[in-house]
């Protein structure tokens, strides 16, 4: 016990926390992030890396299901902390740390869990690109929906009873015809399959024999369809939802992307749990805090860690009302951002919006330029706000999340992330919707 | 003795991995099986006293297979990890032909009375090789170089969709080039 | 480790590669077969060099084989890309080229 | 071949070399954690490597649906092994583990292995983000590897040998870094490249949830992360015999100078990471081919001319 106890105590000092923000509960999330760092802990980017799952706020039905799935994917030892208000963050994290040390508890937990990863039976995988949030792979999940061959976007997950074991498509002639020949499989129940999404024409045939008979495909993996990419090559289309639980991503936003390679060819935006299901939050955040948070996300995604840390400190100082510290931090942030020509070259040209573009998408004037211009203008606004010396410029509104798909289509994945972070997205659409409703 | 054991071990690895290329279901595994085969042969070449060529073989082939994997995934048209792939034709003929070739070659190898070894390897092989290709055999290298460059150009021309006129306009004056993905230099 | 042993192993590699090159339908897999054949040639050349005439000029041959392999590979990739592009616009054409 | 300039030590010393490498890598992790803690305004952090390792040792491993576990694990474990292979040819003062006559090419071969390993680690998880990460790394590889190769050529030309020991010995008067700075910089770019470090970490970046690391937990993650740090350390250490005069220096013995210089290079690399944004593959590809490659070739030309001129 002595050794494993010592190991556990050492391990807890480096705990990683996966923070899930229920839309509207920005204050709790920021408090969690603040306290994490003070303990020497770090945020985790994926459930695979997390020891603690910190749910900030009370999730709605859709997000709850998702959180449960994240919980399933955590390797353990794992602790879940439901934090409903900023005031309880400290005690919740203390409790989590204490529970993390409880080795016997985690041993039992590990034994009780399913050993093999699997896609939940009830998940509606057929709905990729469509509705069903259920089967969503928000990126960090272990569902691996990648498919690199040419296959129809079909889905087997809902068909637990289907017996694919006896099928042998191995000898199929793949050269000439695109689709599969189903006639040879009289016994198979195709009833539940969604053939509508299959693209039989453009690619070299599909093969079901991987299911049931093969160890490589325990089932439930949706396959990709093909399509012409921007270089005129036929490439597979992969459906990958971004969000709602993704590092440095606007809370609650879900962007269902169709990817070819890493280029987003189509996207669809929604908000988790629709509008207003997030429960009561503390209300809209102060503008400067939100901007700082967005700047931090953008800098972190661009990979300048020192500058991102600087933005975070500015945010936390603004949040707790420490004006001097805030002003210092903002000044430092401003200097860092302005000086770094590498940062400029990295963000230059990302989602360049000219006047016509702004009008077409109905965006406010402060979105003009590329990601770097928007970063600078936002830092400028933070300075004005924090300094309090200049009058606050007239606020002309944020960017509605509904335009995001139009903006990011055609960009490559990393640019999509930078583009989204560079926009002043309405941060908590659910809350705002309630407010307006 | 030890060298013999290592050699035969590597031989088994090389041939088995080579055969695995056409047996395994996954494209990634097939590609890296070939890489393994090359690594084994590279080490065998090391055993045969040619350190530079052995290591360069490993270097080049690992790099090539890393790229090859990408092409396999792109063009195989079959799911890598999910589906067994059997995209063959004329299997029996192929097996017959290759078995015949093997018997022929192996018999030749075993039956031909190979001459005695002439001369001894130079002390510093790599230096000797360098002197050779930069001296007497310079013509070879002088040819190989341009061929490589021509390969790069021809490969790009064959594979690329857009030409320079698409990128730079009809009079090749458009700056920066009209690319779907801008580069880092901003030409 | 004798010359005969090296040559037998090289022959085995060559034969396996030949099987692949003959039997595979897809361009990239054919290329893998060719690579494996060249692999055998490479080993055989190295064996000949070491056991018959270990002077530096023989090594140049190996370098040339390596270079040939690279060129083959690069052109193979380019052609495969071209074929893939063509396959969409002209499927039967492609089917003819690829099927048995 | 002339008398060897370094002494080859028996294989048993490999253990010591391994320990030294791990020690330096440990320093790199600690320094990184401390810098990170300072930037966050929290202080401390020097003990972080222990805590992180303990955490990952305690964490359970996990698998994913339809993962290619074999390739996945090879990808992770290979990173750990590769770094140790790399240091085999680095002379520590006058001793070396393997006085390979083509040591520079050996180094190059091991770093090329990283291409395969990172891609395999990304591929094996059967996760979209992991795969995107793997491809990003390959794209980087295509861009940094050729400049790196030409950068490695420069010291070899100047020394007239591919043996690492002789390259170090050839810098008797002037260190190579003085008259081949471009090659040195390109080399450092290459080192950060094959360590998937700092600006070359889009394969592991936050925007794809950690990319190649996205699905790794427990000891698998530890192995891959440790492999990266070890590669960074080995690369930094390799710059010492190649460009920084090997064990040359006043007062201290040769081995100590090698360690001191390695630590310095390593510290600079670790420190730079926090300042430099990620170089996304689509941006860096052009920089690598249009800027770095010609620069490295020109450097080689200059070096060749100097060598010819000096006779």
TrEMBL record, chain B:
What organism is the protein native to? Kocuria salsicia
Residue intervals passing through the bilayer: 6-24, 31-49, 55-74, 94-114, 138-160
Keyword Nucleotide-binding: yes or no? no
Q: Which reaction does it catalyse?
A: a quinone + NADH + 5 H(+)(in) = a quinol + NAD(+) + 4 H(+)(out)
Provide the alphabetized UniProt keywords.
Cell membrane, Membrane, NAD, Oxidoreductase, Quinone, Transmembrane, Transmembrane helix
- Where this protein primarily resides, as one coarse class? membrane
> What EC designation does it have?
7.1.1.-
Q: What is this protein called?
A: NADH-quinone oxidoreductase subunit J
TrEMBL record, chain C:
Q: State the UniProt keywords alphabetically.
A: Cell membrane, Membrane, NAD, Quinone, Translocase, Transmembrane, Transmembrane helix, Transport
Q: Name one Pfam family in it.
A: Oxidored_q2
Q: Which InterPro entries match?
A: NADH_UbQ_OxRdtase_chain4L/K (IPR001133), NUOK/Mnh_C1-like (IPR039428)
Name the top EC class: translocase
Query: Gene Ontology cellular component?
Result: plasma membrane
Is Ribonucleoprotein there in the keyword field? no
Catalyzed reactions? a quinone + NADH + 5 H(+)(in) = a quinol + NAD(+) + 4 H(+)(out)
> Which residue ranges run through the membrane?
6-22, 34-52, 58-83
Membrane-topology descriptor: Multi-pass membrane protein
Q: What is one GO biological process annotated to this record?
A: ATP synthesis coupled electron transport
State the HAMAP family in the record: NDH1_NuoK
Write down what this protein is called: NADH-quinone oxidoreductase subunit K
Q: Which gene encodes it?
A: nuoK
TrEMBL record, chain D:
Residue spans crossing the bilayer: 12-31, 70-92, 104-125, 137-162, 174-197, 229-248, 254-272, 284-309
Q: Where in the cell is it found?
A: Cell membrane; Membrane
GO molecular function per UniProt:
NADH dehydrogenase (quinone) (non-electrogenic) activity
Membrane topology (UniProt): Multi-pass membrane protein
Q: What is its main location?
A: membrane
Domain of life, per lineage: Bacteria
InterPro entries from the xrefs?
Answer: NADH_UbQ_OxRdtase_su1/FPO
Record's keyword annotation contains Transmembrane helix: yes
Keywords (alphabetical) are: Membrane, NAD, Oxidoreductase, Transmembrane, Transmembrane helix
Entry EC number(s): 1.6.5.9
What EC class does the entry list? Answer: oxidoreductase
Q: Which family does it belong to?
A: Belongs to the complex I subunit 1 family.
Question: What is the recorded name of this protein?
Answer: NADH-quinone oxidoreductase subunit H
Provide the species name.
Answer: Kocuria salsicia
